[in-house]
Amino acid sequence: MRTKTLKKNKINVVTLGCSKNVYDSEVLMGQLKASGKEVVHEEEGNIVVINTCGFINNAKEESVNTILEFLQKKEEGEVDKVFVTGCLSERYKPDLQKEIPDVDQYFGTTELPNLLKALGADYRHELIGERLTTTPKNYAYLKIAEGCDRPCSFCAIPLMRGKHKSTPIEDLVIEAEKLAAQGVKELILIAQDLTYYGLDLYKKRNLADLLNELIKVEGIEWIRLHYAFPTGFPLDVLDVMRDNSKICNYIDIPLQHISDPILKSMRRGTTMEKTNKLLTQFRELVPNMAIRTTLIVGYPGETQQDFEILKQWVKDQRFERLGCFTYSHEENTHAYNLEDDVPEEEKQGRANEIMEIQSQISWELNQEKIGKEFKIVIDRKEGNYFVGRTEYDSPDVDNEVLVDATKTYLKTGEFTTVKITDASDFDLYGEVIAS
Q1: Does residue 1 register a pLDDT over 80?
Q2: pLDDT of residue 4
Q3: Closest CA to 328 of 283, 296, 280
Q4: Is-contact 238 281, C-beta < 8 A?
Q5: Burial class (CB in 10 A: 0-12, 13-18, 19+), 284
Q6: How far apart are CA 252 and CA 224, in angstroms?
Q7: How many CB atoms sit inside 10 A of residue 288's CB?
Q8: Across the strands, what pairs with 293?
Q9: How many CB atoms lie within 10 A of CB 352?
């Protein structure tokens, strides 16, 4: 005779790191739900799965701190089990098992079936595109490839994610249709490298063909491109972008640096001349495109002269969107063999300088938008404002458009047209002129 009621497990999935991890957590949650498990995202649950990031030092610290935080809860009896998956676990499993042995089990990035088994669920192949999305209902990430074949000296992603592997077009279309049926209106295409898409499956760069299929999906209004690599960029993508209003005039293309000696040491396979030529082609073929890029400062051997070249280039290019990271010295990468010779304080100072320049550029570009009309999508309500975005802005990283909620009622996920009335460095203020 049982004297104790069996407690029903609730699995809490905690996601750290980038949008690729968000996607992986959503797939995991979809599989768990299909097995009849109760699953939540970053809420209370007695079983915890932490999807970690291992990209740079800050991300690794956050991952380790999160693991320790949940182990403390386990010790206090608030949590029964703690499982760790994702990039940190893929990269450092033996070290983690030794240093943090209280975790119930560690899993790498390719061990979803094993993780599900440990959680008492079965991996189901037939669940193409079945995910529990964690983003606002109007947009979702669509991961079109896994891994990366690029040899960039500073990057540990191939160590954690393996070789580039494209997802077939037909599978992605099925997934997009399922998302559209759930009310998703914007697809954000992600991969370690969109530029390479299709080379392994179709023996050619096939991103344009994929876009031509995705624009046929009913209900999808915006398709956005994230993480394109500059070398070998397929220019036919720009034709599709220009000719079809569903493809946002937006591209995220991490360029990392522009000084030739640094680009060469980074093993980027390009030069300042080639990069500038590509950016000119972008702007000529899609005149009103917003280009987002990210840069790394403080890379080994980066001289003051290299940095001055980078600063001048940022001023000349006037990128619509730009982020800047300090170099992180990652073991087992090619650059780890170089001396990490730029002091941390200098790295931070350089990053701040770049962002000050960009802040001024962003303010100037935003001032030019005052008085103009833009189609926006509403992501959420915050205080007295509805918060939306134009097609030139990606969630969480770019500008937002604030609409006074005391004057107008808008629904999350709906598109509307606004006239910009005011602007700051990274925010626009708009009034609705048509719904």
Answers
A1: no
A2: 44
A3: 296
A4: yes
A5: exposed
A6: 9
A7: 10
A8: 322
A9: 13
Average pLDDT over residues 49-76: 89
Please, where are the H alpha helices in 7-76?
19-34, 57-75
Between the alpha carbon of residue 196 and those of residues 9, 66, 231, 255, 333, the distances in Å are 41, 34, 9, 16, 21
- Report the alpha-carbon distance of residue 268 to residue 146 in Å, rounded: 19
Which one, of 96, 85, 97, lies nearest residue 47 by Cα?
85
**How many Å apart are CA 17 and CA 54, to the nearest integer?**
8
β pairing state of 38-41 and 10-15: parallel
What was the pLDDT predicted at 7? 63
Express each pLDDT in 66-101 by its tens digit: 999 999 999 999 999 999 998 888 888 988 999 999
- Give the per-residue pLDDT at 365: 96
Q: Which residues of 398-424 are buried (b: 16+ CB within 10 A; e: fewer)?
A: bbbbbbeeeeeebeebebbebbbeebe
Quote the pLDDT of residue 60: 85
Cα–Cα dist 379/382, whole Å: 10
8 Å CB contact between 325 and 183: no
Whole-prediction pTM value?
A: 0.87
Cα–Cα distances in Å, from 151 out to 271, 316, 335, 435?
A: 15, 28, 11, 48
Cβ neighbourhood burial of 149 (10 Å; 0-12, 13-18, 19+): middle
Question: What confidence score (pLDDT) does residue 133 get?
Answer: 87
Instruction: Give me the half-sphere count of Cα atoms (radius 13 Å) on the Cβ side of residue 319.
Output: 29
